Amino acid sequence: MVDSDRHMDGVYRLTRNENFREHLMAQGIDENKAQEVDQLRPLLKINIEGNDVTISTEMESGSTTSILKLDEEVEEMIALDMTIKSKSTMEDNRLKIHSEGPNGEVGIRIFEFSETGMIMTLYSDDPDVPEAKRFYERI
User: Which superkingdom, per the lineage (predicted)?
Assistant: First the structure.
């Protein structure tokens, strides 16, 4: 494991969102559900060993775990009980996950790590879906 991997490993608590509710609604999520999800403050546990990337999301209602392989496409189960195809890459302090949904929609998650936390930026290939940011503190 290289130093940047150790820098990314850890437990992170969501502290705030920017445009996350709007991002979800633009993707067709019901406004009430989007508001509910926007208010959640999950914990993310990230572990990187070699080419294996494990991201566990823990919430009061349960947890999900994504197991990714760097530079390989894998099937990933996400929190909405949806299976997507994802490929992850890593460069310096950034983990990028490029995903394709069951209807061909494309999304990108970029995790940018620092010593004190992480920012996850969410993008869509649909120009009507706004960029969203989720801010996490390292705990």
Answer: Eukaryota
